[in-house]
Amino acid sequence: MSKKIHVGFLLSYDYENLKKSIPPVYKEADAIFIAEDKEYRTWSGEKFEVSPSFYEWLKEFDTENKIQIYKEDFYIPKLSAIENDTRERTLLSEKMGVGNWLVQVDADEYFIDFKGFVKTLRKYDSFLKNPEKTPVQIAGFLINMYKYTDDGLLYVDNPTKVLLATNYPKYTFARQNRKRIIYTDNLLMHECISRSEKDLMTKLTNWGHSKDFDIEKYVEKWRSVNKDNYKEMQDFFYLQPEGWKTLDYIGSKDMEEIKQRLNQKPELHPTSFFLFKKNIGQYFKHLFK
Predict the structure, then answer these.
(1) Is 219 domain-assigned?
(2) What share of the chain is helix, strand, coil (3-state, %, to 5)?
(3) pLDDT digit string (tens) for 147-201?
(4) Are 159 and 267 in contact (CB under 8 A)?
(5) pTM as predicted
(6) Residue-number span of the structural domain to which 178 is assigned
(7) How many domains does the chain have?
(8) Chain centroid to CA 167: how far?
(9) Where are the beta strands (DSSP E) in the chain?
(10) 50 in any annotated domain
């Protein structure tokens, strides 16, 4: 049956984060799909292992039998990491079924209010009637978590766009399909690089952007930033440094408290005028395409 909310996740070296990203969407999702490479390989071909305890957690957590694991050969040696990334996302969304809202959430992305996002999606159900002729992408905004300190969290104070859902998954680059985007006021926390140095190196050397910047130099700067000097520094993004100009700080490491405090900051939410301007621009941009 179509017109359901299907949510997809990718299982890789950071699979433990799924314990934080699946629960926020579980209640409101009609079905959840987890893409898993048959040989446990990253997009760069590196092998990883998954503890049996994770599958035990998954089975115990899935009280409504909503979760299914989709196993496939997601690593093609002749493709680049980002090409394997795009291919896996495409196959996953096709598995979830065109005719439904196809939501993809990375393991390190945590919805603050998924119920509100579902309510937003339902406003656009008309796009599910003929997806091929009316492809759209639904965007929200990521609050990028930069680094945990001994007693808090450093995060990027300027949220970034993230493509979360589509009705027609013909991706051309990761989650992008270069079709009309509908911007919405929905926030997610992105545990992008706020991890141990070992886990950070694993992420940076195995993801789709691994060849796009100097990893060693980037990690050196990341290592030096703390709650006492972050205001004296700037340009923290890994690709185009100025993309993350400045950081802010929250004196808590409790995830639920952090979510609540971030969601209460009006400066992290897009304004109504910003959303109107972006959406009217997208409407006319794709009107005759």
Answers:
(1) no
(2) 35, 25, 40
(3) 999 999 999 999 999 999 999 999 999 999 999 999 999 999 999 889 888 888 8
(4) no
(5) 0.91
(6) 5-195+260-285
(7) 1
(8) 17
(9) 5-11, 31-37, 67-72, 101-104, 109-111, 136-148, 153-156, 160-166, 180-190, 247-250
(10) yes
